[in-house]
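Exercise: predict the fold of this chain.
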Amino acid sequence: MSNFHNIKLKKEVVLRDPVHEYIHIEDKVILDILKTQEFQRMRRIKQLGPIAYVFPGATHTRFEHNLGVYELTRRICNIFAKKYPSQRPGDGLWDDNNRLLVECAALLHDIGHGPYSHTFEHLFDTNHEKIGQNIITDSNTEINQVLRTVSPNFPGLVASIIAKTYPNPQVVKMISSQADADRMDYLQRDAYFTGVTYGKFDLSRILQEIRPYSEGICFTMAGMHAVEDYIVSRYQMYQQVYFHRVGRSMEVILQHLLERAKIIYKQGNLPVTPSLAKFLANDWTLDDYLELDDGVMETNFSMWTKASDPILSDLTRRYLFRKPLASVCINPETKSLLPKLKDLIKQAGFDPNYYTDTNSAFDEPYDAYKPTGKNANSQIEIMQDDGQLIELSHLSPLVRSLNGTLQGDERFFFPKIMMSNSDEPQIFDPLYQKFQRYVKNGTLRYLRKPKNK
């Protein structure tokens, strides 16, 4: 790492930020990354996608989130270099030779995201982390060319941090753990732009009490309550913002309209932009992916509102003009009612394949230790005065109550008209009334059998 060619800017660049107040750029490579076309593309991808239909202010983008994660990472590096500098190899303290690497990885950690990322990934079988690593390591990208000015192997090292294979766990966990710069930024940023207070926590205190150790990053005992606050904030943001039923409804509509578009495209009767056509045909390249952003998708949606296919036209209009589906909570027992309800919906004139769906939204606010699997996480450690490490839930009754629990719900989505109670008689009123008998207080229920007289 001593062979890195790092040029400091003659004058620091300072950007205004509504969440962190200022973002400081001191290295030429960081500024040059910002200027690349791949990074500028992040301006055109909203951070929260359909959630903006629920919280009108949530139109912030992945561009400023990436910058925010970089800034928090830069501040953590400053704290570590000042308070916990390594004195000898293997002492578990901070080696500041890792700074430029982790700052670049923080800035680029979400570079592989596409529009409506999670819905798009599910439908087109993409993976934003792998695509991000490809953007960083592909010699044809501007980002790769910028990174190679530091050293020929620098892009691969940056990508290895995002892939979690870099050998120093302090570096990896700074941007990928249960208490990392990524989560700390998006919770505060999303709270700010949605206008809620749930995601706000004592970030200054957390940064004051964060410290490195040989296996990663921990917090001092004095910072335990600030970390508690962070865990609770994360829990509340998921329940109140990320899992909002209307946001999930819009995601369901989005998924179904893209599914319908794939079918109509194969029939050869769909106006579509060239880059999205490659995905509908399942024949795309990295260049095609980099041409996609929210604007491209919305251009296609606008064309599809006039599509000859009535289902595609209706779904795109529902998405663009915010006409969400209704929903009710379900459980494993009441799921058996869904075929009956779907049949009523079909009789009312809606194709259940496109106008109904089940959607699960569950999150683990904190998991003491999950070493493997899709959502693998390392535990949060609290360092005692004598250097002993104790896992957070052993010290905090509050976190212990959330540890390993799944919080959220599963919902059944359907056309809102099924809950209609019009004063004027409607042709489908008997169907609506029959449907509504299964719903009480927003939950699906079995009908009570009449008592025998």
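Check your answer against the key: The first strand starts at residue 8 and ends at 17.
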